[in-house]
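COMPLEX REQUEST
Ligand: flavin mononucleotide
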Amino acid sequence: MTTAIRYYSKFGHSAKMAQVVGEVAGVKPESVATPLTGEVDILFVGAGVFLGKVNGSIREFARTLDPKQVKQVVLFGSSAIIDSPVPQMRKIFEELGFNVAAESFTCRGAMGPLHSGHPDANDLQALRDFATAVLH
Ligand SMILES: Cc1cc2nc3c(=O)[nH]c(=O)nc-3n(C[C@H](O)[C@H](O)[C@H](O)COP(=O)(O)O)c2cc1C
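STATUS: Structure written out below.
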């Protein structure tokens, strides 16, 4: 199974999460600034939210892809106030015609003292378990 991982990370949280997914998948995660070339079975995409929104670079990255390049998109992310960034990302990818997995991963991400320390070790272990279930 071929896997790629892309993320946008304003405060380093999605980058840390992508690292964990990368360890499970055995591939190096890259930011969405790195184009995806060739075809993959699974593309993990992760982000947080800032002022209620997923960064526009996620949509820009999605637009660089051909849905035929990617068998399935698997989403992950973190947020402090809204439930999850995943619905916003799902909308972006589904509107462009991608097959987006029903399963996704979300945890809390710190916003100052709110959810301080998250994603923490337990969050990252839960993500590790999620990625393992997706890939094996
Ligand atoms: C300045 C700031 C603004 C934030 N704004 C929001 C927000 O509007 N809604 C929300 O749910 N989370 C908000 N968060 C929480 C982030 O989404 C959370 O920290 C997330 O883990 C960031 O992921 P990233 O570092 O990968 O971008 C904010 C965090 C910070 C530090």
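REMARKS: The mean pLDDT is 98. The radius of gyration is 14 Å.
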